């Protein structure tokens, strides 16, 4: 072989090697870019999908659990709920939940062992001062939000460290009439809450606006045909809870709430009005008393009929006892 040919062949072999190396590197780059694009797409889908995260778990297993959920929650933008403002900053409430467990204060919660299911929810809602300690097996341990009546605020303030201390990151939403919630120094309940916010600056305390209170009255009249004031009734904490939950939660699981016909069924389960008040008035006796009160009563039975109606158009499910929605 001539020297010139040898050099020519040598140069050709070097060129083939260079081209091959370049093609391999470009192929790896394409694969890497594709993987990054797929991962970015997956993040986008998970963060903005209407499907709750737990529906993806059968495919993903548990590899993307708590840390991933924290990433999701911290980077998701929630719309403000303008009918609820904080004390003292007057900022709107910003909270959104995939699955909300709304835990009733009813004695129906006793002996059901629903605590584990409740604690698995994205958010757990309780009412007024209903405790968890000593009842964890039936009502769960966690609390995300408490809907509180203006009449129950003094009960919270009997144990301010427990409810508003640094170890408690619960959101408190307090509803009440203007006479108690006015902010001009004459609202007794609002003054109590403002003092609590000063004593516990990290506490997250919100109150319903006058506009939101009026809205809830209008909803009652629209659904029942009765003016709340003229009918001599007061809306219940459950009413305010369900209205806010429908605005804030993708799916609502209600535990321990009886329907409007429960107290008429033969052999119904007799339980105390509150699960944490043993020996208190029977729940159905309390319901019937309020329903027929000429003035100052809650229309619990009427409200439950409205809730059943809402459940047909919203993602609401009732457990312990389970409701049969026709």
Automatic annotation (TrEMBL):
Q: According to the UniProt entry, what is the EC number of this protein?
A: 2.4.3.7
Enzyme class at the top of the EC tree: transferase
- Can you tell me which family this protein belongs to? Belongs to the glycosyltransferase 29 family.
Output this protein's name: alpha-N-acetylneuraminyl-2,3-beta-galactosyl-1,3-N-acetylgalactosaminide6-alpha-sialyltransferase
Reaction equation(s) it catalyzes: 3-O-[alpha-Neu5Ac-(2->3)-beta-D-Gal-(1->3)-alpha-D-GalNAc]-L-Thr-[protein] + CMP-N-acetyl-beta-neuraminate = a 3-O-{alpha-Neu5Ac-(2->3)-beta-D-Gal-(1->3)-[alpha-Neu5Ac-(2->6)]-alpha-D-GalNAc}-L-threonyl-[protein] + CMP + H(+); a ganglioside GM1b (d18:1(4E)) + CMP-N-acetyl-beta-neuraminate = a ganglioside GD1alpha (d18:1(4E)) + CMP + H(+); 3-O-[alpha-Neu5Ac-(2->3)-beta-D-Gal-(1->3)-alpha-D-GalNAc]-L-Ser-[protein] + CMP-N-acetyl-beta-neuraminate = a 3-O-{alpha-Neu5Ac-(2->3)-beta-D-Gal-(1->3)-[alpha-Neu5Ac-(2->6)]-alpha-D-GalNAc}-L-seryl-[protein] + CMP + H(+)
Give the record's keywords alphabetically: Disulfide bond, Glycoprotein, Glycosyltransferase, Golgi apparatus, Lipid metabolism, Membrane, Sialic acid, Signal-anchor, Transferase, Transmembrane, Transmembrane helix
Known InterPro entries for this protein?
A: Glyco_trans_29, GT29-like_sf
Asked whether the UniProt record includes Membrane among its keywords, one would answer: yes
**Highest lineage ranks of the organism?**
Eukaryota, Metazoa, Chordata, Craniata, Vertebrata
GO MF, one example: alpha-N-acetylneuraminyl-2,3-beta-galactosyl-1,3-N-acetyl-galactosaminide 6-alpha-sialyltransferase activity
Q: Where in the cell is it found?
A: Golgi apparatus membrane
Transmembrane segments annotated in the record for this chain: 30-48
The record's annotation in Gene3D superfamilies points to: Glycosyl transferase family 29
Which membrane topology describes this protein?
Single-pass type II membrane protein
Its pathway is: Glycolipid biosynthesis; Protein modification; protein glycosylation
Q: Name one GO cellular component term.
A: Golgi membrane
Pfam family of the protein (one): Glyco_transf_29
Q: Does the keyword Transcription apply?
A: no
| Position of the signal peptide | none
One GO BP annotation here? oligosaccharide metabolic process
User: Organism's domain of life?
Assistant: Eukaryota
């Amino acid at each position: 072989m001539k020297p010139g040919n040898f050099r020519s062949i040598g140069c050709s072999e070097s060129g083939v090697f260079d081209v091959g190396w370049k093609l391999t590197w470009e192929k790896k780059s394409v694969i890497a870019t594709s993987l990054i694009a797929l991962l970015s797409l997956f993040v986008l889908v998970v963060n903005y999908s209407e499907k709750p995260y737990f529906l993806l778990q059968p495919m993903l297993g548990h590899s993307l659990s708590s840390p991933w959920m924290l990433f999701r929650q911290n980077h998701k933008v929630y719309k403000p709920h303008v009918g609820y403002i904080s004390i003292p900053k007057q900022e709107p409430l910003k909270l959104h939940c995939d699955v909300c467990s709304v835990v009733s204060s009813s004695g129906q919660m006793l002996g059901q062992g629903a605590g584990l299911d409740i604690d698995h929810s994205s958010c757990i809602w309780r009412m007024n001062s209903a405790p968890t300690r000593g009842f964890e097996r039936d009502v769960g341990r966690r609390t995300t939000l408490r809907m509180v009546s203006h009449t129950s605020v003094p009960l919270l303030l009997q144990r301010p460290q427990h409810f508003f201390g640094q170890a408690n990151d619960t959101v408190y939403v307090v509803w009440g009439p203007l006479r108690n919630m006015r902010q001009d120094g004459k609202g007794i309940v609002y003054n109590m809450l403002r003092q609590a916010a000063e004593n516990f600056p990290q506490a997250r305390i919100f109150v319903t606006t006058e506009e939101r209170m009026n809205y809830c009255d209008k909803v009652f009249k629209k659904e029942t045909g009765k003016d709340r004031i003229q009918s001599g009734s007061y809306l219940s904490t459950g009413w305010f809870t369900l209205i806010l939950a429908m605005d804030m939660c993708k799916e609502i699981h209600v535990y321990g709430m009886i329907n409007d016909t429960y107290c008429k069924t033969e052999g119904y389960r007799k339980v105390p009005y509150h699960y944490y008040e043993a020996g208190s008035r029977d729940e159905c006796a309390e319901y019937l008393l309020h329903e027929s009160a000429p003035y100052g009563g809650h229309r619990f039975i009427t409200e439950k009929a409205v809730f059943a109606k809402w459940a047909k158009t919203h993602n609401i499910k009732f457990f312990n006892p389970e409701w049969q929605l026709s």
